[in-house]
Amino acid sequence: MHSLLGRGLTAPQVEQLAQASVGRNIAAGHALMTEGDRPTGLVLLLEGRVEILKRGRDGQQQSLGKVDAPTVLGEMSLITERPTSATVMAVKDCECQLLTKAQFQRLIASESLAAYKLVVMIAEVLAERLARLDRKVLELTAQI
To answer: Omega of the bond prior to 39 within 30 degrees of 0, cis?
Structure first.
């Protein structure tokens, strides 16, 4: 979890998140989460690379892109109860920490600064993804 230190978390805050989460190693070629499944929580991708896949109208999976660690995945599971919106497949072996919604709520209830910094990190990731989506929409509309 040391890669999170560069994202504004101190060593004790990283340790607090590590204690609240469960470590997972996912081999390349295996899914971290599957579209349509019940969400399991926020995945802190510490090492590795994943591909985000979404089923098209024809039922075929289409790649939305690849994401390198360190980042967060499944962040919407902390906010909503909706099924997982995409499949996340390990392209390289991945080291992760899973923070369930219940554990996250306990951290927030205890007024954990690490939890609040995690919220800021999630907001930054979402803003970055939205900016990327905006650029893609502009590219697609320019082709029309």
So the answer is: no
| d(C-alpha 41, C-alpha 23), whole Å | 13
Place of tokens 């599957």: 34
85-to-1, 3, 39, 100 alpha-carbon distances in Å? 25, 26, 9, 17
How many residues in the chain? 144
Give the pLDDT confidence of 89-140 residue by residue, as tens digits: 999 999 999 999 999 999 999 999 988 888 888 888 889 888 988 998 898 8
d(CA 52, CA 9) in angstroms, rounded, equals 26
Q: Which two tokens stand for residue 111?
A: 């007024």
Tokens 């991708």, residue located: 45
Domain 2-142 coded CATH 3.30.70.360: no
Question: pLDDT digits over 64-77, tens only?
Answer: 999 999 888 998 88
